[in-house]
Protein 1
Amino acid sequence: MPQHSQQQQSQQQSQSNMTLDDMMMHNFIQRFVAVGRSFFTPPQQEQIVDLGDGLELRYGFYQSAILGWKPFLNVDVAHKGFPKPENLIKVIRDQNATIGDRVFDKELDNWQKESLQKYIGGLKVEYEIPNQPDSKRTYKVNRVLGSSINQRFDLVEKVGDAQRTKNISVGQYLHQYKNFRLRYPNMPCLHVGPSQRNIFLCTIAKGQALAKKLNENQTASMVRSAAQPADVRKRKILEAIRMADFNSDPCVRDFGISIADRFTPVSGRILNPPVLLYDKEEKRPLKAVWRAGKFLKGTSLRNWCILNLDFRTREDSLMKFAREMEKIGREVGVSIHPQPNIKHLVIKPSARKEEIVKELEVYKDFGAELIVVVIPDNGETYGRVKQAAELVVGILTQCVKAKTIYRLSVATVSNILLKVNSKLNGVNHTIGGPEEPMVLKRPVMIVGADVTHPSPDQNHIPSVAAVAASHVPKAFQYNMLWRLQPARKEIIEDLENIMRKQLLFFLKRTNHKPEKIFFYRDGVSEGQFSQFKLLDFGIELLPWLRCSLIIFQSTCWNFAIAFAVVAYFSFFTLNQRLYNCYLVSTLNFGKYVKF
């Protein structure tokens, strides 16, 4: 089929999907809070889950139409954080819980204002002077300003036939002209609306979905609440279908569409887990769980350091951690020196990345092979450490939360050593037994590619494209290359140069050219699935196929490539177990030959 015909077919299918989606939303879009393709209702009192820091969890459902060999409606449960509809005075008190009501004694400092701005910026608030219902207004918050004492504006007054301009504070205006005295005059005003309006006495409007990234504690609470047994999840999906009541919508009926009230049965099989080869033993996982044996290829760690960035973690706890690393390391085949260099460094929440860079550079000059960094349980320290270590200094790090140091167990230390051994170019285990893919017995490159996008409120942060490619026969070790690119752009812009480097790296490490390349492309949304297969394949892959033929200057290089776009689905078995599966749409393009 000609390329333009394929593109036209892809566009028609995409438009058909959008039309079906719009039709299925018609009946209930006014009854729910819509967030993309997900829909939420206010929780019942017994269902309210506090996520912390001003957010509560709402349950809903996700729905989208799929045109496969026949039309399907994909429905799943959805979870979302919503700001609590509460007065901003309570929000400020909760954000500064360590000092309680003392926060109202003076104006907020810059750090406290920034924290409030991160939470309330972009949200809608309701403004109302007590006992004056006619004053109620709803505005969108732009930014946090100074206190009502210091925030002043010019008020134009009429004096007879003349006008007089008077500079007055917000607090004075409310007292003199609205007959209301503020109880907390040190608290900030808000800049709201399209024009400059400074308001006080605000309550967060209800029914707003948070279009921002959850913090660490909120994410943990969300995961705990969303993790449910398969039978509960299945029941909630069926309840969502009944609540949506698609078949009662005249618009749906007019198009001759009806939605079944049960799941579509499909035939399938569950593959046996592969045998994992360790040093002189084999392990077969049972229900995705197994205990690691002695690593197939252990490494040695002689010069390592512990950098403690948590003020609560003491020296004796760190020494105990070092002894456990050495002890468990001997059992799994990793030789670790029992006495690392330990340094304590207190990092403030507002600390810049440069402070960590300076400390890491000292360790690099010292010849450290690995730095174990103990980070606080909360905050953004992890991101700053990884940026400093991997983007600036160029040194290996292993971050460990402070609470992990206090709750050491054999399993925890073993899991840490899995990462440490891999980072030091060791081999933990490989696939063996009858399940070992025959394709791994020949020179094969397995490639995984994804693009990570910033959250909706992060407008000035770029997307990150990453491509990992195997370069050893058993496909255990991968070389990773990443690029920054414009925000929310799904196509990997520099894939040609990335794959050129990956192919050269493979050739250098194996002294062979790959006979087959399996390219797994993740991160493509359901709406883009058909488009990506037909159109974006050419944009992403053909340039580096061209460059790869130039790299390998041989009279004939035969290789096969399979390009797989990965989508995510859930399946319920008849015994009510849940399997989260990856549906792989594969395009096999046979052999490309250079003459």
Note: Residues 3-80+213-254 form a domain with the Alpha-D-Glucose-1,6-Bisphosphate; Chain A, domain 4 fold (CATH 3.30.530).
Protein 2
Amino acid sequence: MAFSHNQTITMLSAWLLASCFFTSAFCLQPNVLQPFDLLYESGISAYYSNEYSKVVNHIEGALDSYATLKSIKVSCWLKCRHDHGFETLLSSSASLFDIAFFNVLLLRAYCIKECQTQQLGVPSMHQANIEIVNDFYRRTPYNYLQHAYFKLKQFDKAAAAAHTFFMANPEHVEMQQNLEHYKLMAGADEGNLIDREAKPHMEAFSAGVIYYDKQMYTLAVKSFEEALEKYYKADLECRALCDQPLKFTEYEYLDYKLPLYEALADHYTQILSCEHDCVRDLATRSGRISPLENYLPSHYEYLQFSYYKAGEYGKALQCAKAYLLFHPEDEDIVGDIEHYDSLLPDMINPKDIEPRKDAMEFMHRYLLERELLKQVSDAAGVRYYEPKYWVILKSDKVINRMPADAVMQTEVDSTVPGNNTTEQALREEIHEGGPVLYDNIKLVYQSEQLNGSHRVMMDEVITPQECKDLHQVAQVITFAGDGYKGRMSPHTPNERFEGATVLKALLSGYNGQISLKSAQLFYEVSEKARTIVESYFRLNSTLYFSYTHMVCRTAITGHQDYRNDLSHPIHADNCLLDPEINICWKEPPAFTYRDYSAILYLNGDFDGGEFIFTTMDTKTVTASVKPRCGRMVSFSSGGENPHGVRAVTKGQRCALAMWFTLDPVFREVERLQADEVMATIQEEQQMRNELDLNPKDEL
């Protein structure tokens, strides 16, 4: 493929314009979109100032801005992919292929940059902290909104916000109680509540299932077709949002400079993996972890029978053949196809009817991506595990009739390493009851009394004076959100959350901000707790610190009326709870390397704040522990021990929270640094002691 003089000038001009956007703030001055993170933070600030009208304005604005940001990114990506496709490369000669490829690449890059800058302004304006992005994913803004609307006596909007939050946080039992209260005040019923963040393709699919169950097949067809159209649209949008900067978090501390093709390969692999995983995202309901079983193929199975009942045998055959692309050996569908073949008019050859085009294109791309990802894994010497999104677990599938609850099941693949665990499995091979090492410590309750496994409660682990000294340390060195990337209140907007690490305590003592003796006490007490846990649970290897945190939760005055939320929602420490199916998924972003946990309380003069264990459904409380000075609760960190903290409604609750690992690779870096600081302090103390000689010794 040869380039004319004008084409070359066009290419160079495009690159120069692109450079303008890559290197300067922006070349145009558009009416830019307000950053959603700044609006959100302004809303939170107004919340703590009890300015509820401002809370609504700012957080509603943040939600609109966030949605608009995603919409702009998607539309720009789609436009530029259409305007600058790689189809032209097919006519390029081998010698000019690289130039043609990078020509398209540069034009597309410029196009996206120009499109986004015209509508968004400086790209960096919208690069929000990952914690804030996670808040929006978890629908946390609606938690603030529901309370603000309640304070403004706009109960219908409070109910809508609470419902939207609850749909993504079904374990939040207190929000359900709030919702019932708002519905009563607003006179609304469940049918009138709208999920403001509902996924359109799932809404249409659910409607189709309802029509199908009522044997209203014509309406079912309409809904399922709408669901498929919206699914494939959502798939494109999901893939567009995968166009993100290269993430290399494990090696950020290294000055990595890869050659061109290696850099391109690394970045493309990241994006390809994200795009391939859209199958999971689109099949996962908001707030859930695991995708719905057999979600996309189910559309075609429902449709094939609905079309059959509506008398459209050709379309039924197309859908049945589409389903076989996902499950080639499904005997029931093979039988359906034979039946549909017999119903077709003689002039139609069943072999001429192919599977639906949308399914064929999807599966063709999906299989190519899977093969490419497998090649990447093989090249890296890593075994590739393809998630089994379309496995059917039900053994009693009815021919030509799919039960309404079939899509509510989820996949449990016990063959994948590091996968999910059930309560029963985690109760096996439990060892505990070793010595507590210190005579003064009282063993109060073991697993049996705490109605679980691998749990223990001890009293008098530290003395009242040590509690007092550590509590005083907390008043000086803890800061809002410290230890959680500066988040003011990571678990509830009704409490102030403050914390400090052991390293911070030692540095504060070394610099004279607090008593050096008290700083050392934090270090020594946490080490004491570690040795107790290691001994009591009869561990055969060394237990290392994974994270050590002094944390205080303080009830915010004026925020306790009608409060039913938890200070810390029910969770497990090394896996992601899925309460609907009683499974804990041991996968990121959970701290999968944590093995044991311990909480040592410094005081008990507050209201609420009980530590609770629950079953995996997060609803049934199996044990409740009232904090007091010197009391310690310890337990294994997995799904066998879901736990949380009840609301602190008055006063301040302080404790030392400690997480441990058996894998030295995941030792707490700050703890290692604290060890070094502690060694320095001890050396200096020893030197001072040696210099502080008795005058009589000089004689």
Note: The chain has four domains: 5-137, 144-197, 201-408, 459-683.
Protein 3
Amino acid sequence: MIAPYLRHVTCQQLFFVNLQRPKNGGPLVGKAGRRVLKPRPIPDPRHVITSWVQLPLFTLPRDFRQFDRERHADLANPWLVRARQTARAMGEARGWSCWIASDVDRALVIVLSGYCEGESIRYSELFPALRVRGLLVVRTAEVLDRLGLFSDDRAPAVDRWLERKLHEVSPGIRRDVEAWVRTLLDGGPRSEPRARQTAWTYLNEIQPVLLEWSGRYDHLREVTRQDIATVRDAATGKQRESRIVALRSLFRQAKKSGQIFLNPTIRIRVPRQAGGVFQALDQADVDEAIATATTPDLRLIIALAAVHAARPKMIRTMQLDDVDLGNRRVIVGGHVRPLDDLTRRAVLDWLDYRRNRWPNTANPHLLITQKTAVELGPAGKLWTTRATRNLSATLERLRVDRQLEEALAHGADPLPLALVFGIDEKTAIRYADSARRLLETSSESLNAVKHQRVIKAEDLADRCLLQVKTSWHHYPESEPSLLHMWLHMDGLGPVRFHTAGDGLALEIDQPHGPYDMDEYGHTTVEEDPRDFPTSPFVGEQVLSVREIRYRDGNLDFAVGITVQFPSGSIRILNLADELVLAHDQHLGPVEAYLHEATTNAAPDPSS
């Protein structure tokens, strides 16, 4: 029956065995199995205003300082009722004391008694009214912000900082620099935001260069490769490297955004500075830091830095869950470490103090303060470093000393160091190199480094000044400050001048190299710095040295010396723990209490 049809068949469809899907097994193939496009989501219906709202024609500043509770309080205002409920909930969640809750309640009555829907309470209106009554501005603003009623009309801190740094820069350059700094802080389409400290350091480093260019150029596109080379050659040491790195970042961003046609920093080579050798702390410096730990919080901070090599930021951001007392483990910077007896005892003492001092706090951080006990954030940087800030053994130095000690104990092997502290392999290699150099140093040289020789000021007499070296501390948003000064004297070597108590100390000590202090800035070392007060006397012989004493009533102690050269004299003083150098200029009111001896003498460092 099918023969007539077979004669019309010109081709046949072949099927391979076992490749046909069962009728009801698995997904459909071919046209029947194509994906069906998902229907577009139905948009949410527009919000319908069920009650009328008075739109403001213009906004007048309100003065809450004229508020009188007896005449103006409206405790039935629905927004005030809702805000007071929100404040009670926040207070219970954060452990507010009865005094804080009472102050916030009083503040809410002041600002919300006459509130109408649609209004916004600005910070400029809130602050004067609450501050004059001694009420809490921050806590009240948190409650209002939770309800969507608060508007912070303060100028952002970054805007004030940029205005202060760039107010003398030409408008064309300033526009590009501001865009670059904001990209560093906030990120861009193809760039991640950088740390705030990085943006501060970069701009502080190149601000003098931008001011110099503003006198000649109107835009960054006018800067040439020769200008970059001049900037590179004018700086030395670590400053040269950091300045070129910042300029590369600036011009790379300007090229990416189309503000310049050619990047002048391309192929500008700067030799990388070799890191200095880490030095161990003297036992006396460590003992001094331990002696300052007189409270439970300070003892815990010192233990975390000196035993577990924790950075200050790691210490203040540690949470309660990071301490496992049962299993004797602690998490420091994301790295699990065994909990030793000393740290465990410090943790238990602190937890007892914390529980008795703030029993209702909900802050999850391990270390809290009077301020953060009613918040959820970490303690501040200054609070964490307050005990050792003016000591030789700072928290950062204690951390470095602990890691160096571990490197020396393992024979300068970087692998155990990386495993113990969870640090980067490059950092571990640097510590291992420092340990190897210290181990290779002969015992005589090591003793000479560790035990500095104290000299008297009269030992400088009749000796020639060969060279001047200075050490400077650079911190964001502040001018560099003088840390140490070395005068290389003929027959003595480098003599370091530094503050010691109320007096001035002179020690024969080799100058240290530049080093980084992370979020606390960095230090640089300069040789024969230009325009430094002692530089004009290089090559001259010291004729005499006279003592300068501070006398005020019963106070009488040495604060410095006057060094006389053939071409002039220089005063070197310790004023308020700051190393001050002056020629003949007047030093202000303190000048009346400074008395210079008429004969040669030496200041007593222990006075």
Note: The first helix runs from residue 3 to 6.
Protein 4
Amino acid sequence: MAGRRSAAADARPGAADAAARDPLDALAELLSREVERLGAHVGALYLPLPGEPVMELAVLVGLPRDFARPWERVGFSAPVPSAEAVRTGRLVWVGGEEEMARRYPRVAVAVPYPFGMAAAPVATPAGSGAVMLLWPGTHSTRLSPEETRGLTGLADRLAGELARAARRAGAPLRAGEEPRVVSGRPGGTEPPEVLAALLHRLPEGLCALDTGGRLTFVSPTAAELLGEPVDRLLGELPWTVLPWLRDPVYEGRYRAAMLSRQPASFVALCPPDRWLAFDLHPDASGLSVRITRARVAHGDAPAVAVPPPAPIRAGALHHILHLATALTEATGVQDVVDLLAGQIVPAFGGQGLALLAAEDGRLRVVGHHGCPETTIERLHRSELSAPAPEARTATSGAPAFFACRQELEHAFPARTGLWEGMGAWAFLPLVAYGRAVGSCVLAFARPHRFDAEERTVLTSLGGLIAQALERAHLYDAKLELAHGLQESLLPHELPLTRGLAAAARYLPGTRGMDIGGDFYDLIRLGRDTVGAVIGDVQGHNVTAAALMGQVRTAVHAYATAGADPAEVLARTNRLLTDLDPGLFASCLYLHLDLRARRVLLASAGHTQPLLRAPDGRTRVLDVPGGLLLGIEPAVRYPLVRLPLAPGSLLVLYTDGLVERPGVDLDDAVATLADQVDRAGERPLEDLADLLVGHAEQSGRRDDDMAVLLLRPEPAADPPR
């Protein structure tokens, strides 16, 4: 029966042709048809690369390939709409420039034009891909229900086509070596003689550009205004054939018109003194351009200098801006390596990466990805004077590109066999602030010819990487210093005290230097008395950590001298105002008498502690607070006396444990009290982990946090 069904299917008209047809052509036709039906002007289909967290651009509709070069390969972790659609499994809509800048600043910097964008995941036999559509800048900031259904339906139809192609081929469909590019609908035939004569009589020049930006029609008047014959202009890019249009600003206006599908204009100086106005009118087939003489007053003339003969193209410039924006997100050295490996290297089609720093006459591998371990071992600590491309690039500051293994081995025979499994290489100098700091090796699995624009972008990338690495090294050094300082200032362990169980935790914030001014301490004052302090110094840097150490030392000194909590805070406050560090601190200090079963407390603007009674009920203690430490020298702090039965639990904490954006502080403290209530009589170490664990679940935190738990117990010898 199966054989008969197959024969019947083959007998259908066109079945054999459909089976033999390139499946990418079928996908391109489907995408092109749906782009027009949904009123969009650009469409793109991404297919996953098996075995790698990357998807590749398979089909592009409505734009030339140059527009999409920064995103021909997109990592699943990249902060772009198509990758987010894959990660979340949901449709992503961006309604315009402002929303793009807010949600995807990296994309907004590279393509700062008005358009709406939607991306939806596409299920494929190899994993998730994505389909993306762009609408003109005049589109509503909302996606209509019909458009939403149309896009999700398109994703389903693409998934069906991909599944059928995989069954026919016996393997998932992959993107081609280059994306399949479908230009817009035909723009019509050349004008007849009568229309040509009409155009010639007009005082303004008219031109037509295709979607790739090449001139397809130039009226005689336009050629006269531009100063070049028609036959020299046809088929050329205006910013290539006309030296005075080579400023990236002018190509940028063309890109703006094509992406937004809205008219654009600019004024340019045709040497020596002819100012021309260009009005660009786009549609799916390209651009119509009207050229007129511009009336520019002498004082209002735009300051446009004739650019150098070979400036960087706008496409390359946008690519560099995209890369620069990405690298600004990296803080430490490992962040730079991860960003390059996960997002930037895949965008160029590379498979291997090695970052080498020049130190003491040798190259040190500071990060790598996708390279054989034997290669990394030979590169690490290799001499800068060695006859090797990575060393030559680092010392000369000149990049080197090798399109195949034969080229590399011909230039550097000593490097034969070092890069097994790779077929092409780009060796980029890392030059930061005018000095060479190392080299970056980008390796490709297959031979790869580097064109002039790609060499320009990669060379610029080397400079961006160098600056990012320099900042990252400085950040890591400061972070190591800050961590060392903080670890030396916080107690390594709490002192064992007879009749008292105690536990403490500290967590730094997840922003900035990963260091803060929160502190705690437990001070043994006598056989049955202890002091406990918790505080929060303003700031999240080395200065805050240093001041935290001064406050903790002062509290310790005054407490061991026999002062009560109110006097301890008053003396510490006077010391801080004398030092005048420019920072303030909140602080809560208590004196616990285990034999008398009482506690004395004083607070300098600190969050209120919690008390869990032996019967299991938890309440917020009302401790009157004075001014923060370090504001006014003559401040008195109220002293509070409370009974404290064995089995009671005191919870001291800093505001980082409870504060959340948009949540009232009193509500947050009440939530913490409820957590302590529900925790029951569990060991204090477990309770401390539970409380900070709840805070960690909130994700990114601006503030650090500290918690100190104290529970009086029946007198017993402390454990040894």
Note: Residues 195-314 form a domain with the Beta-Lactamase fold (CATH 3.30.450.20).
